[in-house]
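Objective 1b of the project was to move from sequence-level analysis to a structural picture of ligand recognition. The entry below was assembled by the postdoctoral researcher (A.K.) and checked by the PI before modelling. It contains the amino acid sequence of the target and the SMILES of the bound compound, zinc ion.
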Amino acid sequence: MDDAKCPGEMKPSLQTIVDFCLILMLSAVGLPSAMAQRASDEIDWRRVEAAGLEVTRGDHLTLITDVRDRADVDEFVAVFDQAVDQWCDYFAIPRADAADWHMNGCVMLDRENFVTAGLIFADLPDFPAGYQRGDMMWLYLQDGDYYTRHLLLHEGTHAFMEKFLGGYGPPWYAEGMAELLAVHRWADDQLTIKHRIAHRDEVPYWGRIKLIREDRARDRGFDLDEVLMMPPDSFQQVRYYGWAWAACEFLDRHPDYQEKFRRLPSLANIDALEFNEKFRRELEADWPAARQQWRNMVQEIDYGYDVERSSMVPVNNRLTGDEGTSFSVASDRGWQDTGVDVRAGQQLEFSSTGMFRVRDEAGTAWPADAGGITIEYYRGRPLGQLIAAVQASDGDQPLQMIEIGNGGEVEFSVDGRLLMRVNESPAGLHDNQGEVQVTVQTVSD
Ligand SMILES: [Zn+2]
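Corresponding predicted holo structure:
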């Protein structure tokens, strides 16, 4: 399967890409599986050697390359061998089952060298970045020392799923999983796949989150149902890889959906529509909330977006009495459900107390109260400021932030459920600590 350069780095001719493998798979169901499994039978190793290509054999990967003097490529065999164990663990395949599994990977600087070596098979499509068929993968060398390795793991995930799950599932799942399990950290000769990206510098030239943010700014984002129905040919555009990755990141890490999502590998070998139908049916009761929380994620997605901490939970210590409703808002969580329903035109009086930590930078705590701190801002408001939003009863609307701070009166403009949190990027919640105590009283109905 195929992937492309980071859009920010793409030349105009590479603006579109084609996931040929997937399209071939969907259009050639009758293809003898042996053909896909043993693409390497076509390799003439004497010819490869005569063409001057470098061949390195590992447990699970034979690397064939014309790239010299690139430390990242020298490590690919070690990277791939570690990835196989981690794919096994993720997909619950016993490691022993994959002991003899072997791929051949061409990492190409100049395609002509591989034509000479007989490695560009006659029926191979003209892919711009990466491609996988059975036990063969082809990748073009990419800029930076992250992105070629990412492509190796992306194509490797496709190959692993084809081999051990018997299929890829629908396009969003095939490409989303390949992206999810290709996002990685490689440090001190140790690989971690499905790495949580904290900063864009960790994934140079990957660019998927930037694409989602650009789509959002142009009002051409996708809701969750639309992601599920992405047709195979939509993956001619790299932004679709971003959305498919985001959906898998969301469903895999969200505590309410993770268990059901992680059962999907068992469906990877069935028809794509049936796969989607079964998954939707599994999540039927959760779907409206999932759609809303997906929308919340898209609204604030950034490098380091923390799906677990951003998943909706109730506020703590909720009490209702004559003096109104009181509760605690955790500083290290995203939107929290106050259990308070509001109506358009209703006025509520808020008061808040308490100190919390809004950042821990190299052991130095940044204390804040509900007013926030004005050394730093997020979305135009002080970091740590207490904010509210109404999740509208009719759903499907982006949340509008309402400033609460240390308290005051608020008149609401829509009916719905009151949510609260402190103002910070969902990428920066992990080092917060403490709570804000809030009391809400009705001023006028
Ligand atoms: Zn792919």
